[in-house]
Design brief:
The chain is of the alpha+beta class. Helix content is 18%, strand content 50%.
């Protein structure tokens, strides 16, 4: 291979790499990312909303246009098929901002998902036994959302909002007799009626 052919080859590879990167950036901007919202209920936490990044300005959206599939897993934990993989029911959809607040025009779609004490697929935790102890364990919780009209897919969680937990300071520590403990503390944003 002479010098000119080598230079053409290198230039060709650079152009391919550049076009691949540009395509990736466009796909990412068109919305493969989602934010999962987990709320607390009397039966435990449940993923009740998912916020989709769409890139385009929208004013309306149809909940029937979306399919939501979930995969639940945790290394070393065996799950029955019906609690590991399945469909989530979309009960409502609206145009929102990146935090899931309803807006008239926005670049995000929020899907409200059905949750209930017997709707196992909505739970991001699993009760497991480990070292002769039972505990609730946060598990791997992966959604794949498909918009049927466009065949657009969101399958990459980039953020997780847990409204009840997000208001707590979880960085507290306490040490006594060589034992270090961590704790969470809540401080109201408005301190009205407090000394």
């Amino acid at each position: 291979m002479n010098r000119m052919e080598a230079l053409k080859s290198i230039l060709f590879m650079v152009l391919i790499a550049f076009s691949c990167n540009c395509g990736y950036g466009q796909d990412a901007g068109n919305g493969k990312d989602y934010t999962l919202v987990i709320n607390g209920y009397d039966w435990g936490p449940a993923a009740n909303k998912v916020i989709l990044s769409v890139g385009d300005k929208l004013t309306e959206v149809n909940d029937a246009d979306f399919d939501v599939k979930v995969e639940r897993s945790f290394e070393g934990v065996q799950m029955d098929a019906e609690e590991a993989v399945g469909e989530r029911k979309v009960i409502y959809a609206y145009v929102s901002d990146e935090k899931g607040n309803r807006v008239d025009e926005g670049n995000y779609i929020t899907l409200v998902l059905f949750v209930g004490p017997d709707a196992t697929l909505g739970s991001p935790i699993k009760y497991i036994r480990k070292n002769n102890r039972g505990m609730n364990q946060w598990i791997d919780y992966k959604l794949t959302i498909t918009q049927k009209s466009t065949e657009r897919i969101w399958n990459s969680e980039v953020n997780r909002i847990i409204p009840l937990l997000d208001d707590f300071d979880l960085k507290g520590t306490y040490a006594q007799n060589g034992i270090n403990l961590t704790y969470g503390a809540f401080v109201p944003k408005k301190r009205e009626n407090f000394p």
